[in-house]
């Protein structure tokens, strides 16, 4: 009789299958409101092709063509996700409270695509704190923000950047180029855009580890004064220039761009604008206007967006404090007050995705060395940061703009783009 009734029992409905819990789980079961909360997370992300699981194996989503399985290992991280999804996800993954079975880049690509048109993706608290209460990027705050990211130690960056320690987008005329070749190509691409001539006086704002300044002096016969507020980077760059015999042609200054003095033929900034803060764009424009010669040329290379909005809240809090990727329209606040004239605009979005793919692979290849330097939380956080950067460039959430401009009265400008290629 019992067997007969079992055989005649109706098949579970789709809803019952969706909320299925393993019969073997008897301890620490999730509660109905927690399961409802997981459903809310799933909905807020635009119902991506994921399986979401709780600590007791309760799951939602479908296994068919699932890009990843995401497991919340405790109640606390689920509640945090409901309050502040982006930050909680980043912190939870870093701490090991969230596990992902699947390729991390593919997972974030899927999330970005699903979430793109989903209006409920951010919690109210995230919208409030990321859009309204961003602090102005004063000189003191800028220094603290740069130290947070760049002064973790040169040995760490040596593990996964190219030989020149270029921590900015490379340029891939051939997408199969090595990272080293693509970074060399990027520096030459910048130099050609600036039409560098032997004897030019060049100012570089935000010089990183000094590779571009040294490259310009070595191969284009210019003299460079390079500014940077990272003590670690300035010391490294100065030591290298001295060792290679270029200390008379390249001078590295540990100071902020706001304190640049003198007159120069060329002003170049690669990867600094993201850290300036849009409230300071006009001030940056004034600095350029004050120091640029009448026939001077300017290139600004920056991560950007097509639509104005802040950097990821988690990135802002944990990886790059104070970073802001501008739109092209916002970048015009640098140019318009001083009546500069745009000569060239290029978007290297896919080049940056490819660059970070190289970085991530090298980071993973150096996992043993990285784990000897930092704890597992740091390693997982940087894995998420690099993976998320690749995914966001691939799905168009971030762009990479190179903008070349000069004074509006300067007629010594190229008649074509032939010199670039």
Automatic annotation (TrEMBL):
Region Disordered: start-end pairs: 1-24
Biased composition (Polar residues): 14-24
Swiss-Prot/TrEMBL GO biological process terms: lipid biosynthetic process; methylation
InterPro entries from the UniProt entry: CFA/CMAS, CMAS, SAM-dependent_MTases_sf
GO molecular function, one term: methyltransferase activity
Swiss-Prot/TrEMBL keywords: Lipid metabolism, Methyltransferase, S-adenosyl-L-methionine, Transferase
SUPFAM superfamilies assigned to the protein according to its UniProt record, in alphabetical order: S-adenosyl-L-methionine-dependent methyltransferases (SSF53335)
Similarity comment: family membership: Belongs to the CFA/CMAS family.
UniProt name for this protein: Cyclopropane-fatty-acyl-phospholipid synthase
Protein species of origin: marine metagenome
């Amino acid at each position: 009789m019992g067997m007969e009734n079992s055989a005649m029992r109706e098949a579970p409905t789709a809803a019952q299958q969706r909320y299925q819990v393993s019969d073997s789980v008897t301890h620490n079961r999730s509660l109905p409101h927690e399961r409802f909360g997981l459903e809310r997370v799933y909905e807020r992300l635009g119902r991506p092709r994921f399986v979401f699981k709780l600590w007791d194996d309760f799951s939602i989503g479908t296994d068919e063509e699932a890009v990843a399985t995401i497991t919340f290992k405790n109640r606390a991280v689920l509640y945090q996700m409901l309050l502040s999804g982006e930050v909680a996800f980043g912190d939870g993954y870093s701490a090991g409270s969230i596990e992902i079975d699947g390729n991390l880049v593919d997972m974030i690509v899927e999330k970005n695509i699903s979430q793109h048109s989903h209006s409920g993706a951010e919690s109210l608290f995230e919208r409030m704190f990321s859009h309204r209460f961003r602090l102005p990027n004063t000189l003191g705050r800028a220094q603290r923000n740069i130290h947070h990211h760049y002064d973790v130690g040169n040995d760490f960056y040596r593990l996964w950047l190219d030989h020149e320690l270029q921590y900015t987008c490379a340029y891939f005329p051939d997408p199969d180029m090595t990272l080293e070749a693509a970074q060399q190509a990027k520096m030459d691409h910048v130099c050609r855009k600036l039409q560098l001539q032997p004897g030019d006086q060049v100012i570089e704002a935000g010089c990183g580890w000094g590779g571009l300044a040294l490259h310009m002096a070595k191969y284009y016969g210019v003299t460079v004064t390079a500014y940077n507020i990272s003590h670690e980077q300035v010391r490294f760059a100065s030591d290298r220039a001295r060792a290679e015999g270029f200390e008379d042609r390249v001078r590295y200054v540990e100071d902020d761009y706001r304190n640049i003095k003198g007159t120069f033929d060329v002003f170049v900034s690669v990867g600094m604008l993201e850290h300036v803060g849009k409230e300071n764009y006009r001030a940056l424009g004034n600095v350029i206007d004050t120091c640029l010669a009448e026939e001077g040329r300017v290139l600004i290379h920056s991560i950007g967006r097509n639509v104005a909005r802040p950097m990821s809240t988690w990135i802002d809090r944990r990886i790059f404090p104070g970073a802001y990727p501008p739109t092209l329209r916002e970048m015009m606040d640098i140019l318009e007050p001083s009546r500069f004239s745009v000569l060239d605009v290029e978007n290297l979005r896919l080049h940056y995705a490819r660059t970070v793919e190289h970085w991530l692979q090298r980071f993973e290849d150096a996992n043993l060395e990285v784990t000897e330097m930092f704890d597992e939380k740091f390693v997982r956080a940087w894995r998420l940061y690099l993976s998320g950067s690749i995914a966001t460039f691939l799905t168009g959430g971030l762009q990479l703009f190179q903008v070349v401009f000069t004074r509006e009265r300067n007629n010594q400008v190229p008649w074509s783009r032939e010199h670039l290629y």
